[in-house]
Prior knowledge:
Blueprint: H1 3-32, H2 40-48, H3 54-85, H4 97-110, H5 116-138, H6 145-169, H7 172-182, H8 195-210, H9 212-219, H10 222-227, H11 232-254, H12 260-272, H13 279-300, H14 308-330
Helix pairs in contact: 1-3, 1-13, 3-11, 3-12, 3-13, 4-5, 4-6, 4-11, 5-6, 5-11, 8-11, 12-13, 13-14
Amino acid sequence: MNAFGLRAECRTVLLVAVMVALMLALSLLGLCYGVSWSPPGKVFAVLSGADHSVVIRDWRLPRVLAGLVFGAALGVAGAIFQNLTRNPMGSPDVIGLDAGAYTGALVAMTVLSGTSVQLATGSVLGGLLVAAAIYLLSLRSGFSGLRLVVIGIAFNAMVTAINSWIVLRAELEVAIAAVGWSAGSLNGVGWSDLGIPFTVIAVLLALMTASSHSMHQASLGDAIAVTTGVGLGRLRLLMVLVGVGCTATVTAVAGPIAFIALAAPQIGRRLAGAAGVPLLPAALTGAVLLQGADLVAQMLLAPVALPVGVVSTAIGGCYLIWLLTKEVRRA
């Protein structure tokens, strides 16, 4: 291993250690903070089984775990699509996958009874349909990451307009619920909401981890990937399925949480000093960003808890301005 590779690996190890420490600190703060403050000693007692506080065990702990797992899933989804498109703008919320998942959920709310199973199924199907349309159109005259991003932005605008039309045509109660849910929130998340989503995300992340080496080879260029035996068509299909699956699973439970998938991979890549967009730094950064944003959402107008999507959008908007400014200067 050369000096550059060793230095990059050391930075990655240090980054992982720092991010894990931040995750633990934010998790402890999330378990302590609420309408009433719980001291860390009480939190540790509940986690060890010596105490049985319903507030910590059944209200705060599911929310904290959801923030960490959903943030990691969104970070990985963003890394997948940024590797696929080789563009820092290539994230699910920018290219229309969040909007497509929201469309599926809206159909489940307005046409069906809107159960959790129907919301999950509708979100996945909506995201997959939009992803399939974008991917097939981007294959014309050969696959192009830039073409995929541009087509995705156009689809995002069209699908967002369709979503607005569905909400306007819905009954008042359904429309209010849909608009509130569209902000993206971890408020009220309980254990019953997390079993299936956590299982799905674990399976998807395991699939992507097994293909992480091939994804890294593909990010270096099609020619290098082919010479090392990577099946690009099969790999890209798997990447799209895993990315959509992660995004849609989070959307089905918490609504579309914007900008975590856009910012986390690039922040993780810069902190790690990596050449591509590695999955592990993106996942850890996403977990820290979402958990941190949720704590800010709870504290900002306490005792009223804002939807986490409001805070993540504000953070992501600042990041997007910085990113666009940097790209313009580079051009």
